[in-house]
Amino acid sequence: MKPDTTVVIVGAGQGGFQVAASLRERGHAGPVVLVGDEPGLPYQRPPLSKNFLLHAETQTELRPRSFYERRDIELRHARVGSIDRFGRRVRLADGHTLAYDHLVLATGARNRTPPIEGVTLDGVVQVRTRDDAERLRARLSAASHLAIIGAGFIGMEVAAVGARTGITTTVIEALHRPMARSVSVATSTHIADLHRAQGTTLRMGRTVVRLDGDDTGAVTGVRLHDGTLVPADLVVVGVGVAPAVELATDAGIDVGDGIRVDAHLATSDPHVSAIGDCAEFPNTHTGTRTRLESIQNAVDQARCLAARLTGTPAPYTAVPWFWTEQFSTKLQIAGIGQGHDDSTVLGDPATGSFSTLLFKDELLTAVESVNAPADHTAARRILAFDRPLRREETAVDGFSLAQWAGGRQRRGQDRTVAPQDAVDARLGHTADVH
Amino acid sequence: MTKIDYIQSDGTRITVDAAPGDTVMSAAIAADVDGIVGECGGNMMCATCHVYVDEAPAARLPAMTDDEDQMLACTEAPRTALSRLGCQLPTDEPMVVTVPGIPT
């Protein structure tokens, strides 16, 4: 791509923001336009289900306005209506068009709304945007009974806030344990116990039949399939998200479980790339095509793409990592543990600090660390090594991830394919961070 | 308002008036200081707000928690005795910090 070309980025979340910032950091001289459909400056979402609900003054803006001005990044507040791939321009809903040489789709995801009767009652809310979170914060201060549908990360984070503010809190989940799609039984059990110890009721393995309301249209409770009623004057629905793929689909770009991209994050149109929550990419850590919903993935894919657009292409190989915080307990996950066939625990869960190592076919695939950041940072290094950690190597007395990682690095055995990857290996993310 | 001085890897010194409640990380981001990323928003998850505290009323700096200590193991620039995570440092007192340059 020539240095004076125009890059239009659709979606001003963490990924879109990072593409713009990294392009400038790498010296891209052409116009950079960041199009977002929410008012205000780009902001971060992780606090929205945590501190932001407790403290109105929680800072969420990623950078001040001067950041964009100094770097000549144009912020455009608009909804994109369609992509004209052949004319290489996007049409905005306000009637304007933006010409591009390269288009980046960082459209993120939208919350799923379950097809449940009563889901539109007053007092039934979701959390995605900062506006959503502000409304939820106002409602939390007035509510007495909070019911959360869905025990994923967001649901459990909101439950922790509810319990902390002294509201009677119940979490309802169709699967049999919290965060079942994301974490192992050991971690899930530990987190569930934390919530119960704070007085939260977990109704696992229960499905919702309908939401009940009063004659003013306000929600009064959640009816479960076992016939029981969970009284609630505030219901938070957190049942997962769907990637925002409509623009790509309408433009005839390949879409699977997300906008399909190759190892370089290019879509089926070489002038269009996709990153972050909306992108389905070949995951070198699982050997499958996946879509990840995380800050790490959005930021690292943004950096990988900015590197390619400025002339240093490298396939996307960053180690995935995730975090959640509930009741001051920090859960950090490195790698992808889904489909593991064995696990082992380092440390004693009773102390509140331990890590669960997950293996598939005898090789380490993920580490879930509860209040154990040293294990987490070591795991991120280990999972970037060429030579995987075998289960049998962890079965020695006093095994430590940090020591093993340090030992391999000293012996120079963390050989990776390219210098860029070696930096990834050490840092858990790409090299152009500053 | 408390004055926090950030010295960047090229020697530039930026003085920021930190607002009450700011951390060394959040004040830097609000003032657009290069080199402090704060990717995780101040949750001690990412270590991208690593700074070297050059001048500070040392006795008044909060003690380093185990979590901060462990996260400092994965900073990009080398850790030294002056290393702290900016998100863990309140701005009640004037301070001079160096923002590490990142090896490429």
Task: From the structure above, extract its key features.
heterodimer, A: 434 residues, alpha/beta, FAD/NAD(P)-binding domain, Enolase-like, domain 1, 3 domains, 5-stranded parallel sheet, disordered C terminus, B: 104 residues, Ubiquitin-like (UB roll), 5-stranded mixed sheet, 5 strands, globular
Written overview of the protein:
The complex is a heterodimer of chains A (434) and B (104). In chain A, α6 links the parallel β11 and β12. The longest helix of chain A is centred in the last third of the chain and has 15 residues, at 295-309. In chain A, α1 (14-25) runs parallel beside α8 and α9 packs antiparallel against α11 (419-427). Chain A starts with 6 loop residues before the first strand and ends in a 7-residue tail after the last helix. Helices cover 25% and strands 29% of the residues of chain A. Chain A is of the alpha/beta class. In chain A, the strands form 7 sheets. A 5-stranded parallel sheet of chain A has the order 3-2-1-7-20. Chain A is globular, with a radius of gyration of 23 Å. Chain A has 11 helices and 27 strands. Chain A folds into 3 domains: 7-110 and 242-309, 3-Layer(bba) Sandwich (FAD/NAD(P)-binding domain), CATH 3.50.50; 124-239, 3-Layer(bba) Sandwich (FAD/NAD(P)-binding domain), CATH 3.50.50; 321-427, Enolase-like, domain 1 (2-Layer Sandwich), CATH 3.30.390. Chain B has 104 residues and is α+β, with helices and mostly antiparallel strands. Chain B has one domain: Beta-grasp domain (Ubiquitin-like (UB roll), Roll), CATH 3.10.20.30. Chain B has helices at 24-30, 66-71; strands spanning 2-7, 13-18, 50-55, 83-85, 95-98. Chain B is globular. The mean pLDDT of chain B is 87. Chain A binds chain B through residues 44, 46-47, 57, 59-60, 62-64, 66-67, 70, 295, 299, 323, 325, 330, 332, 371-374, 377-378, 380-381, 402, 426-428, 431-434, and chain B through 21, 26, 29-32, 34-35, 37, 39-41, 43-45, 47-48, 67, 70-71, 73-74, 76, 102, 104. Chain A: This is Pyridine nucleotide-disulfide oxidoreductase. Chain A: Its cofactor is FAD. Chain A: It comes from Embleya hyalina. Chain A: One of its GO terms (cellular component) is cytoplasm. Chain A: GO terms for molecular function: oxidoreductase activity, acting on NAD(P)H.
